[in-house]
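Fold it.
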Amino acid sequence: MPHIAIISASVRVGRNSHRVARFFSNYIAAEGHGTAEILDLAAYNFPIFTERLRLQVPQHEGALQFAERIKAADGIIIVTPEYNGSIPASLKNVTDLLYEEWYHKPIGIATVSDGAFGGSQVLGVLQFTLWKMRALTIPAMFPVPKVREAFDEDGNPTDPTATNKRAAGFVKELMWGVRASQVGRM
């Protein structure tokens, strides 16, 4: 079974995007798509990027553990809020910290906002960065507008039928990417 790492990108106090990370963790397991783990950037104390992890001396232990989890994952879902039309500094920092770990890794992007557009502006910024890292971002998107109205703190959607329908298409694309990348590595 595929293993999916879900990056919860916000480290902000009172963050809401973590609700969507919890949803995907529960959804992947409940639907039998594989195993999932949340890699919560708030739980790591990453150093500010000064050089890629492989070139740092000494190497940060938490960053090494994070890198191993990314490397071991068959696919990744990044759940990120939109901060001023872009990605949070915590996500940019960890994206730049790694390099080989992103190579040909299938990645789905879920964007979140309190407003009506669901963080759609962050998508282009993040996709471009990941393309430069040679990751394989899937074409499906999962924008979440008005996140506090759409999910409770435990990741339960207020409209499970509609949310699960959207998630099904998103995860289907991610799983296709996972299978394709596995064939490509043979």
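The chain has a mean pLDDT of 91.
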